[in-house]
Structures are given as C-alpha cells and as structure tokens.
Amino acid sequence: IRFFWLAIPIVGLGTVLGRLLPLGIKSIRREEVPWAWALNGVGSVLGTSLAVMVAVQIGFSGVFWCSIGLYLLTGSSLLRPGKRSST
Predict the structure, then answer these.
(1) Which of 67, 69, 82, 86 has the greatest CB tally within 10 Å of its CB?
(2) Which residue has better confidence, 1 or 72?
(3) Cα 34 from chain centroid (whole Å)
C-alpha cells in the first residue's frame, strides 16, 4: 500500500513536468526540433551533475528549490505572447 501512496504524487508531478518539452517542441519551427532535442540531452546530463554538486554543498532541499525555480522559469517562457509556428 505504501507503493500507491508514493506513486500517486510521483505520477502526477512527472506528468506535469514532462509536459514542458512537448509544448516547447510544438511551439518551434520544424528546423529547430533537432536543436531542441540536443539541448534537452545536454541539459539532462549537466543538470544531473549539477544537482549532485548542489546537494553536496547545500543539501537536497536546496536542489529541490533550485529545480522548482528552474521549472517555473521554463514554464513561464511558454506563457509569453508570441507568434507560434504553423509548420
């Protein structure tokens, strides 16, 4: 039963956070999609390494709050008014 109490918030949070990349891909031109995937890969590798370094210096709660801030920054960039590509 512990599994279900843990799985519910993880699935919910993962669904919300995992939605940012598809929304970003949808909002760019077709020619920019490979660059978006490349940046996502680089960000994943560097983010993991940086999270370990931040955790060593200021703890896991510091990593948590840094990640919250970065996700809010990323999400807010999708809210800015602008012309969406139709291709």
Answers:
(1) 67
(2) 72
(3) 17
Query: 25 or 57: whose pLDDT is higher?
Result: 57
Contact call for residues 17 and 24 (beta carbons, < 8 A): no
Sign of CA dihedral 16, 18, 22, 28: positive
Q: Do residues 85 and 28 touch, judged by C-beta distance below 8 A?
A: yes
User: b/e map of 34-61 (b: 16 or more CB within 10 Å)?
Assistant: eeeeeeeeeeeeeeeeebeebeeeeeee
Rounded to whole angstroms, the Cα distance separating 73 from 80 reads: 11
Residue 47 falls in which region: left (phi positive, over 0), alpha (psi -120 to 50) or beta: alpha
